[in-house]
Amino acid sequence: MTTDRVKLLGICGSPRDSVTKQALAAALNAAESVGGVEVYGIYLHGKNIQCCRNCGVCLKLQCGYCPVIRDDMCREYYELYRKCDGIILATPLYYMTATGLLQNFMSRMRPFSRDARQGAFGSRMGGSIAVGGMRNGGQDFCLSVLNNMLQATGTNIVGGGVPFYNGASVCSGNGSELKDEIGMAEAEALGKKVAYMCKIVRQGLRAAGESVASANFLGFEDTQALAEGYRVRGLG
Ligand SMILES: Cc1cc2nc3c(=O)[nH]c(=O)nc-3n(C[C@H](O)[C@H](O)[C@H](O)COP(=O)(O)O)c2cc1C
């Protein structure tokens, strides 16, 4: 990335233009207020995003997008996802978990699975926002699901810290306007935290020098051996 500004991408998994989008906006606006941060949003309401079929064509072609399914999963989404330094996932709770729409979207990031395994997103930071109709409708569980999605795609988790450990929990009261002051404050704090962490990592990598900046973040010392292990198991 040539620019010094960090790029933060919010992904809203609601099928409605409603409270989840407002909670994500609170987080992204707060992130922007940190300075040196560009924010982008992908809003999935009204979009037809199908689930990955695990056909493997994207991996075979190494094209960086899904060349098989014809739906609203456009190349611009892949570009935004590939380039960003940070991600905030936001979803309404549907039966205590993320919407199928968001899960479908994330499943379509399969073209980047090899890059992720090779540490391409190892310096990326991410956080999560869960919006339920109830105060205690499963936000905690849903945040774990979102954080798992981030981790499974190579992103490092930024939680809320104390007192909202694993991300922002919002209660919509099943209305269409975000009125939950605590939830909004959590979303704002999370947005700022993700933004700061992206900047700190960027500056830290620069200060540490090229060898660390280009290092593989898998956490294994001998990544060659690891890659070979995957290859012989047909996973490479
Ligand atoms: C199919 C379905 C399942 C839901 N399950 C839950 C749930 O488990 N817990 C909860 O608190 N709210 C649940 N809700 C309520 C929504 O999470 C809530 O209305 C939320 O604000 C919707 O987000 P939106 O305003 O962005 O559309 C459910 C709603 C639907 C349609």
Can you tell me the overall shape?
A: globular
Let me know the CATH homologous superfamily.
Answer: Flavodoxin domain
H-E order: EHEHHEHHEHEEHHH
CATH architecture: 3-Layer(aba) Sandwich
Beta-strand share of residues: 5-15%
Summary tags:
236 residues, alpha/beta, Rossmann fold, 6-stranded parallel beta sheet, 42% helix, binds flavin mononucleotide
Structural account:
Strands 1, 2, 3, 4, 5 and 6 form a 6-stranded parallel sheet that branches. 42% of the residues are buried. Helix content is 42%, strand content 15%. The model has no long low-confidence stretch (mean pLDDT 91). The protein has 236 residues and is α/β, with parallel strands linked by helices. The chain contains 9 helices and 6 strands, in the order E-H-E-H-H-E-H-H-E-H-E-E-H-H-H. It has a single domain (6-232), classed as Flavodoxin domain (Rossmann fold, 3-Layer(aba) Sandwich). The structure holds flavin mononucleotide. Flavin mononucleotide binds next to helix 1 and strand 4. Residues 14, 16, 18-20, 92-96, 131-134, 137-138, 172, 174 line the site of flavin mononucleotide.
Write the layout of secondary structure elements.
Elements: E1 6-12, H1 19-33, E2 37-43, H2 57-61, H3 75-83, E3 86-92, H4 100-107, H5 113-117, E4 125-132, H6 139-152, E5 156-157, E6 168-171, H7 181-208, H8 210-213, H9 223-232
Parallel strand pairs: 1-2, 1-3, 3-4, 4-5, 4-6
Helix pairs in contact: 1-7
Bound molecules: flavin mononucleotide.
